[in-house]
Each structure stands twice: as structure tokens, then as C-alpha cells.
Amino acid sequence: MIAYPIKFAPILKEKVWGGRKLNTLFNKSSLREAIGESWEISGVKDNISKVVNGIYKGKTLNELLQNYKEQFLGKSHYKVFGNTFPLLIKFLDAKKDLSVQVHPDDAMAKTNHNSFGKTEMWYIIDHEEDAEIVLGLKETLDDLSILSNITASNVNTVFNTEKVHKGDTYYIPAGKIHAIGAGVLAAEIQQTSDITYRVYDWDRPDASGKLRELHTEQAIAATKKMPHKSRKEYAIGPNEEVDLVHCDYFTTNMMRISYCHTKDYSNIDSFVIFMCVEGTVTIGANGKTEVLHTGETVLIPACVNNVFFTSHNAKLLEVYI
Hints:
single chain
């Protein structure tokens, strides 16, 4: 495989809760007014990413995976996932509150949808004043049947909410009730799955004037009582790296690049994804370079051993399995 930093065309998703920041701040080209998500790298059916740079320009993510197999994905991971790319990489702009939701674990998703479950994480890139997220249920709540009768009058007694700060990282395992609140701009890393059980949608209509469907029975079956504390506390200096999330489905580290930096990936049997969440950085592999600005993403195939970084001051999310 001729490996280099591969960039894909973003797949933009209009949402009832979306805004314009992905366009105005991250230069995601769209004339639509409510872009909630930019799918940066996706192997989800009917939403397959397409390469926009280098020798593979015009090829899809699935074509690269099918043609280059373990060279692209990693030998051990190809044995597990075959020709299915295991992660979905996104940026999100919440102008309004997202619906409160929960995702099934692998066992439930396999039984009900013949799919992977959905464990995910968020990195807060920016936010408006007093922006919040929903993170789990109130500690005093024991009876999940309340999820079938949530109203504007009792919603504050059901869900735990937390104010966010720039740089916060949250781990959201399958089964944890959650929602990104209005004013949050975030990166999201998750299993390849688009299964969401909507619990509560703030009694708002969609573009056609109808209330969106709730999935109460499935949500109750999927929900697990978990500790609220999911935020990672960390500090990072120039050319340092900090572990943010390490789980069965992905590892995500924060890298702060100041000046020049080189990293050896020969001991990692995995593709590596870099999401630029602050600044501008040049990333090189096998003599080829790609410049990343805030809100852009590249993938380095598993067969690459060394990656080079140059920046005055940039922050990257480094993601691999």
C-alpha cells in the first residue's frame, strides 16, 4: 500500500438542533442552515467516506479497506472487523439541545439490529456561556419506568446535568443516558453504529411540524445505572501527550504539538486518526504531508511506522484501536 495522511470529504448532516459553526469556524461547505454533524470518517451504510487527496483521491473508505486489508486496518483488527471500518469520527455543533438518548451495547445491538453497539466519547472544543450536557440519571432515581413519562414539569428531576468547559473530555459507554446541550461544539469518537434510542426530545417539532419518535421501551431496556463521573481531568505541556480514553473499542490521546515532533507507531497494530481541535499542524508520513486546520481530520494507515508533526502550537486528538 502507498500510505500517506489520507483526508476524506466530510459528510454533513442537517439536524433540527444544528447550527452554522461547522461552516463558519471549520469551513465545512454547506448552504443549509442547521448542520449538526460533520461525519469525518464513516463506514456506516449509505454514508461511506470518500478520499479527497493523494493517489487514492475518489476512492471510498470501503475500497481502501477491501483492497489493502490488514495494511490499512491492522492485522489483528482485520481479523475481527474484516471489511467493516470499526469507528465513526464526527464533529458536532449543537445550536439547540440534542435529544436525551441512550445507545445499546454490543449484545443488544447484535440481537435487535445485527449491528455493533455504540460506546462513544466527546471532546469539548468550545462552548457558549453556561452550556451544559446531560450525563446519566439523578442518583436518587431508581425506577426506570419514569423514562416513559417525562414532561417539561418533571424533566429536571430525572436527568443529571453538568456545565462544560473547553477541553473537557467525557466517556459515554453504551447504556449511559446522555445529551449534548445547546451551545456546545464537540468532537465525537464512537463505534461504527447509528443506533440511537431517543428518550426525551424537549417536546419540540421537527421540520415538518411533528414530534420526533421516542423509543421508550428500547431505551429502558438499554439503560444502565452508572456513576456520573465521566470527565477526564488532565494538564498538558508543549510536545506532551495525555491519555484521555482507553476502552475496548478505541484509545484516544491528546497531543500538543509545539515546533517539530516525531512518533514511532511500529508497536501499534492499528490505523491512527488525527483530529485537529486547535491550531494548525503539518502531518507527514512516507515523505507525503498534509496540513490540518482546526476541524479537520486525517487517517494514517496501519502500515506506517513513523509520523512527523510540525506546528507552532496545535492540539490533536490521536485515535486508534
